[in-house]
Amino acid sequence: MSRRYFGTDGVRGPYGGPLINEAFAFRLGWSAAAWSLAAKASGEVLLGRDTRASGPSLLAAVAAGITAAGLRPVSLGILPTPAVARAVQTRGSALGVVLTASHNPASDNGIKFFTRGGRKLTDADEAAIEDHLSAAPEPHAAPTPAENPAAQAYRDWAATLLPAGALAGWRLVVDCAHGATAETTPAVLRQLGAEVIALGIAPDGTNINAEVGSEYPGTMRATVRSAGARLGLAHDGDGDRLVLCDEVGTLLDGDDLLTLLALDALDHDALPGRTLVVTEQSNLGVDAAIARRGGRVLRTATGDRQVIARMRAEGATLGGETSGHIVCGEISPTGDGLVAALQVLAVMRRRNEPLSQLRLQWERFPQQTAALRVRARPPLASLPGLSAAIAALEGSLAGRGRVLVRYSGTEPLLRLLVEGPSAADVAAGLTQLAAAARAEGIVADD
């Protein structure tokens, strides 16, 4: 289904550009509300945002469009994306909107939506919203939306996911990326008894994700080592991702966390259908580890929306992405970095093992990735040299590895992934793909 504006996760781009500006935000807010009304929804629309300087004016514009369409916007203030989704679910709201560009720099912003139940929109939903854009009225101002801050309610709920005092005596390092989790994750961990060393908790509108957070975990890892902490947690700007490091500073990505959680659930017969859902990005070692415990892995296209849809179709309750989107479906309707962290901490408590030991339950297949900035995004099938290189590499790895080449859904990047029987094979294959992409003339970083 063709969509012009929506990408992998909402609409995203540089603030002040052709998409992310107040006029388009008004039109998109109006269109989303009109779509919701057409589906017989009514009542309030909940809005949250991260800490970008452009957030307040974009939120006001979206809210004005929602008001013009006939629904009532309510601002939840600065709040992690999953907390907005949960509020939509628990309050039975018609729609949720988050002003965020997730892990992107502060110069970008974006608009994400949740429908009833805190669910992300389907491709069909997004296409239908885009169909309403042509009928949107001219942007105009509206009264500031009602304020109903929701951070405290989210903190109180999250703290119930572990027993009171469960983290007493634990020293943890938390990097909030100067983003939306600065007032939530450290507070919840402290409420559970942990000693928290907090990084990335001084947002100024311009420093979100700036050398901090899940995209830049180096400081977190160094702090864990120097402080003798039990582990480190890092979020992205809107808090739907999680990256951990163990007590010696070794990084754990989404594949590590999903495998750890799935294996523990399999051991307790607590993984419905004995099924874990991941994307095509996940390492093949995940499949091997889960299969050894009698489980199965299902793969989807990239994007947590795809993961959630497959989980729902299969009745699965655990899924996610290598990037750190972890969906614990029995707890949250969408990926939630804090929820995922609490689930890992629960496994550590139950098994009385450090993270450095738990992470050894599986072994990665050799894998390398690259992200090439591109000046254009023609269909991959229209690039004969790259297509031939992909086919040749797939043929040489048949049964022993895999190749994945795709455009990013949120950035002007061509993403390359190669897995194979040895690090040397993988490195050579990645070099071949990158050279073929450059020869097509689409790469902008040469």
What does the model show?
With 446 residues, this protein is of the alpha/beta class. It has 14 helices and 19 strands. The strands form five sheets. Strands 1, 2, 3, 4, 5, 6 and 7 form a seven-stranded mixed sheet that branches.
Q: What profile does the largest beta sheet have?
A: 7 strands, mixed
Q: CATH first level of the largest domain: which class?
A: Alpha Beta
Radius of gyration: 22 Å
List how many beta strands DSSP finds: 19
- Broad structural category: alpha/beta
Anisotropy-based shape: globular
CATH topology name of the largest domain, in short, is: Alpha-D-Glucose-1,6-Bisphosphate, Chain A, domain 3
- State the separation between the terminal residues, measured CA to CA: 34 Å
Q: How much helical structure, as a percent, in the residues?
A: 25-40%
Low-confidence blocks of residues:
none
Q: Looking at this structure, what is the CATH superfamily of the largest domain?
A: Alpha-D-Glucose-1,6-Bisphosphate, subunit A, domain 3
Kindly give the count of domains: 4
Strand content: 15-25%
- The CATH architecture of the largest domain would be 3-Layer(aba) Sandwich
How many DSSP H or I helices? 14
